[in-house]
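User: quick one, sequence for these tokens?
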């Protein structure tokens, strides 16, 4: 099997219940026909799980390691230490070493100093924002003082050279940026197809992160406001990439993944939905853990498959690295599992569960149909703190996590606590990197 081209599009804060193929779409005032069609052509994962926040998820994707290991625990303001230490080995580095052309267009959020930008971490080129989209509001905020708070910029860079500012990231450029990211992605695909070089395109779009503002061409399109208009724009951008792959005749040579980094926005007026699940990002509820993920590889992955088996974002690191012919690092714990045999329909998912941290706290453990909560915070900033007696839910029978059934199922504590013990033993043998640790 020849190594495929790899296209990975990551939406920002797209909840489980937003897309038509996940029960949303027109019901949310925003039809998503292009992504729905993509789902019908490949594998739709109903139980794809991420971390609690933008930085933790993106670090897990790029390193294959839970953020508690790498110190990538949360978003921090510009100018403060953040992101993946250079000792971490990124997916882009592994694929680049296998001869892939690599590009990042979009939101990075894994380092905003020289040495930690995408072009320093395995990407041949990048264009986008080093941190987060809410910074686009800075310069329009009442009382904003650029002498004490950095002006945010869209940036770009190439491997071997310093990254540079391109233009201010403000409310105007926020509306335009996903169009620019997509156009650059299309040009990258065209260039590398012309020279027959395998490519890894990482396209982390800015939609639907607040402020959720659509391009002017999509403003008013749905009649249901900026959020719905932005969802329609996002669907269109994904469709543009699909169309280019189809036009070039390389669909069967391209492993295409569309996913989200986090559960839905909870900030009004941009609040999203997780469908049948309870909660939003920044919690340990299923609405935070489960997000959309669709995998297409015509001729390899059967069309029209739907699976509720567990997959974790760290698995994308291991799966894509192996698909590209790379060896998984053996000098450190890698939490990701190569799920390609599962994607190809050759066996079930190799993952039974995972630990879920928010910052330094082990909030919950998910195992098979069960979720054990050590802390209880169903809504952001409304937590009870650590529980003396954990709550246990069967998330198949109780998707809203409303009925604690631990008293009837204390046997579940055994396999879950063994998972926790194994992780702690691993952390003792390979100590975690402290947040903000220098390179």
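Assistant:
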């Amino acid at each position: 099997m020849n190594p495929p081209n790899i296209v990975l599009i990551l939406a920002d804060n797209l909840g489980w219940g937003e897309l038509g193929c996940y029960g949303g779409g027109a019901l949310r005032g925003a039809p998503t026909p292009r992504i729905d069609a993509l789902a019908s052509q490949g594998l739709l994962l109903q139980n794809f799980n991420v971390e609690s926040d933008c930085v933790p998820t993106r670090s897990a994707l790029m390193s294959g390691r839970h953020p508690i290991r790498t110190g990538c625990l949360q978003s921090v303001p510009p100018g403060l230490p953040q992101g993946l230490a250079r000792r971490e080995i990124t997916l882009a580095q592994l694929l680049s070493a296998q001869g892939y052309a690599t590009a990042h267009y979009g939101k990075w959020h894994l380092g905003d100093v020289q040495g930690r930008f995408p072009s320093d971490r395995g990407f041949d080129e990048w264009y986008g924002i080093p941190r987060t989209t809410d910074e686009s509001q800075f310069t329009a905020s009442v009382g904003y003082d650029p002498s004490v708070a950095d002006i945010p910029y869209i940036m770009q860079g190439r491997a071997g050279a310093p990254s540079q500012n391109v233009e201010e990231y403000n409310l105007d450029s926020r509306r335009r940026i996903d169009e620019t990211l997509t156009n650059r992605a299309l040009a990258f695909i065209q260039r590398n197809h012309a020279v027959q070089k395998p490519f890894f395109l990482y396209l982390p779009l800015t939609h639907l992160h607040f402020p959720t503002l659509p391009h002017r061409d999509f403003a008013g399109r749905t009649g249901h406001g900026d959020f719905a208009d932005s969802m329609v724009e996002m669907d269109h951008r994904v469709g543009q990439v699909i169309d280019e792959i189809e036009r070039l005749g390389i669909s069967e040579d391209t492993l295409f993944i569309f996913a989200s980094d986090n559960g839905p926005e909870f900030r009004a007026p941009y609040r999203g939905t997780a469908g049948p699940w309870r909660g939003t990002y920044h919690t340990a509820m299923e609405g935070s853990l489960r997000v959309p993920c669709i995998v297409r590889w015509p001729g390899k992955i059967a069309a029209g498959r739907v699976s509720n088996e567990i997959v974790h974002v760290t698995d994308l690191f291991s799966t894509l690295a192996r698909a590209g012919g790379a060896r998984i690092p053996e000098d450190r714990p890698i939490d990701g599992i190569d799920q390609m045999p599962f994607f190809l329909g050759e066996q079930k998912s190799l993952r039974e569960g995972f630990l879920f941290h928010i910052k330094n706290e082990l909030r919950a453990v998910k195992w098979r149909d069960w979720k054990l909560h050590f802390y209880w915070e169903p809504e952001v900033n409304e937590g009870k703190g650590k529980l003396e007696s954990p709550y246990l839910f069967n998330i198949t029978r109780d998707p809203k996590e409303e009925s604690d059934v631990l008293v009837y199922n204390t046997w579940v504590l055994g396999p879950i606590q063994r998972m926790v013990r194994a992780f702690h033993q691993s952390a003792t043998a390979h100590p975690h990197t402290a947040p903000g640790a220098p390179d």
